[in-house]
Amino acid sequence: MRFTHETLPQRVVFAPGEATTAVAAEVAALKATKVMLIAAQTEAALAGRVAAGLPVAVRHDEVVMHVPVDVAERARKAAVEGAVDALVCVGGGSTTGLAKAVALTTGLPIVAVPTTYAGSEATNVWGLTEGEVKSTGVDPRVLPRSIVYDASLMLTLPVEMSVASGLNALAHCVDSMWAPRADPIDRALAGEGIRGLARGLPAVAADPAGLEGRQQTLYGAYLAAVAFASAGSGMHHKICHVLGGMFNLPHAQTHAVVLPHVLAFNAQAVPETERRIAEAFGSPTAVAGLAALREALGAPRALRDYGMPEDGIARAVAPVLAAVPADNPTAVTEQNLTALLRAAWEGRDPA
C-alpha cells in the first residue's frame, strides 16, 4: 500500500442547540474585533441570533447561487471598506462560497455556520461564475478556520431541500471513491459518510423536527466533504459544475439528479469500490442501494424540471468532455456522455 494523504487544518465543533456560544468562542479564538457577517436576506433573523454578541461591523446579504464574479467583487469591497478582520458566514453553500470568494483575495479567516448539508465549509475549494462559465480552484486561504455544526439550525430546512442537499453530500462520497487523488483514507471517510447519510436522510424525511436525523445527516455530510476535499473533483462534479454554470441550475438538485447516472456509469468498472459503496448502503449493489434511498426520499429526477433546455444536452457535451478527469473508471466519449445527459434530462432510470 503506497499513497500520500493530506489532512486539512481545521477546527470542527458539533454543538447542537449551542451555535451562538460556540461561534462566539471561535471568533474569540481568532482575536477578531471587527466581523463581517455574511448571510442571505432569507437567513437574516437566524444569522442575527447566531451572531448575537459578536463584534459585527459589516452585515452583507447579497448572496447569489454559483457566486457570480460581480457579486464577489461587491462583497470584497465591503470587507475592505469595513476594515474587518474575520468573516462569519451563516447559510448554505452559496453563502459559504461567497465568504470563500472574499477570503481568496483578502486572506481573512472564516468561521462557517452551515444551515444545509452542502459541505463547502469543509473544503479548500472555491467557485466563481462569469457568464455561463463556472470556474473552480483550490486555495488554502478559502478553507474556513472553524466550522460550527448545530443541527437545530436545520430544523426549519424543508424536507425537499434537505433531501436535495443531502444527496449533494452523498455525491461527494461517491466522487471521492474514484476522483483523481482518491486514497484509502478518502474511501474510508466516504463509506462512513454514505452510512451516516443513508441513516440520517430517511429520518429527516420521516420526522423533519427530529434532531437525531439532522445530526446523523450533518455527520455524514461533514465526512463526505472531508473526503471530497482530499480526493478532488471527479466526473460527477465536473458535469454538475458545467451544467450549473451554463444554465444557472440549482446546485443541490442538479447533483441529486445526476448522481445515480454517474454511479451506474462507473460502478461496473471498479468492482471493489462498487462493493464498498453497496456495503455502506446495506444493499446487494451500489446502484440498487442508491435507487432505494432515492425512492424512499422522493428525490429529484429530471434536469428539465429545473430549467435545463433540451438543446443544452448537446451544448454541454464538449465542455464536460474537456473537464472530466482522464483516469475516470469508465472511458467517457461523446456518445456515452450524451446518453447519460439525455437520461438525466428526461428523468429516466440510469442505464
TrEMBL record:
Residues 163-345 form the Fe-containing alcohol dehydrogenase-like C-terminal domain. Residues 9-150 form the Alcohol dehydrogenase iron-type/glycerol dehydrogenase GldA domain. Keywords: NAD, Oxidoreductase. InterPro entries: ADH_Fe/GldA (IPR001670), ADH_Fe_C (IPR056798), Alcohol_dehydrogenase_Fe (IPR039697), MAR (IPR034786). Transmembrane segments: none annotated. GO terms for molecular function: alcohol dehydrogenase (NAD+) activity; maleylacetate reductase activity; metal ion binding. It comes from the Bacteria. Belongs to the iron-containing alcohol dehydrogenase family. This is Maleylacetate reductase.
